[in-house]
Amino acid sequence: MALFKKALASNPEFVPVYGNLANSLMQLGKGDEAKQIVDRALSLHPGPAIANRALGELGYQVAEYDKSELFYRRALKREPADFHAHVGLGMTLRRLGRLEEALACYEQAAKLQSANASLHLNLGNLFSEIGQLNDSIESYRQSIRLKPDYARAYQLLAGVRKHTTYDAELKAMEALCKKPGISSEDHMNLAFGLGKAFEDLEQFDKAFDYFKQGNNQKRSLTPYSIKEDIDYFDRLKSIFNADFINQHQGLGSKDDSPIFILGMPRSGTSLVEQILASHPSVYGAGELSDLTVVSKQSVEIFPDNIPLLKPGTWRDLADDYVQRLRSHNHSAPHVTDKMPQNFQYIGMIATMLPNAKIIHCRRDPMDSCLSMFKTLFASTGLQWCYDIEDLGRYYRLHLDLMKHWNEVLPGKIYELQYENLVADSEQQIRSLLDYCQLPFNPDCLNFHESKRGVRTASFAQVRKPIYSSSVQLWKRYEKHLQPLLSQLVE
Known about the structure:
CATH topology of the largest domain: Rossmann fold
Strand content: under 5%
CATH architecture of the largest domain: 3-Layer(aba) Sandwich
Shape: globular
Radius of gyration: 23 Å
Structural class: mainly alpha
């Protein structure tokens, strides 16, 4: 880090060093100092296209998407044939929810490098997000045609399509998975894809074996100890106790625009957001890291230093969060934040934004944990998902923390059970809208017809009417799930 600072001292406009320095500071937990470095970098007005592109990349890395777009566009104005700037701008526009514009960027990039396998994979991801699943399938297949050993493309393709036979694609995946010398990451991607394919074929023993291989590979790449989360959750409960909540009432903002949808992953959060975002008064912003950023930038050590915050800081934190939330949509009366892990920050939410709505999604623990075990998440913060016993332990930690929040914030959190939503969708949707103080709108019943983008692992499910086939699915894997069951019943 000292070398980066020395380089900037000698050349304050050497753009790439700003990104390296900011990333180093973030890794050390110095969020405020990193933000200052980023602000300095983004205030530059460099001439060369490559420097503007570097600033666009930096803006994307730190979620300053408006500035990222600005610099990518400057880069393209200077060099219209810059392939990487077109791709970078497309990625930024996806984050801003401007999906048609993002698609145009990717298509322009494809004209410049039509044989780029990773570009076609990105196109497949975008088509999945906007619900064009046939186009998504073709894009993933084009990636594989260009790069026959593209394990990630095989895994994503398996997630989008429904396997009905033991076909050539499935055989190719199996052969590649068994190839000597395959990397751990490729083996992991292929194993998750094969698990999904064999589940489609209802070969559940074989499916579980592949899911287990994929999880074992992922765990080897992301070491994890449950003890750290046990300690962390205990500190949350100790700090955000009933006395703290009572003493900090009235310090936040009265803004009522945020709707938080949270819970364990794969518990129905994407479905609930899709329902609410079908209402004309609600914009669905998806899974946002904004609350984590605001919470952890507020103090050097979270949550330990929360009691040291000055009373006026809570309003500042709320304004910062709402400003970030509003960057996704400036006009809708309400905007959803569907980051499941925000259940850890309910104490922060209640203090910063007491008028915000909080919806906790719940699902049968066995189905919920199995669904997580079958999923290769894009997020890097879910290491506990990749071991069947740790899954059960973490699920219990989650339930214990939610019990605490409901005790110190009685009546604040709306509990929505996935199985009830499946069994009586209209009544559950009406009750949900009542809690959010929204008038009933029939579009919420037809949520699957919405054209909004969905970036989560549930992108395909929310394009369909509510179905019951995933309820009690764990029974098909019951003999393999005894270690999980033993953790959940302790």
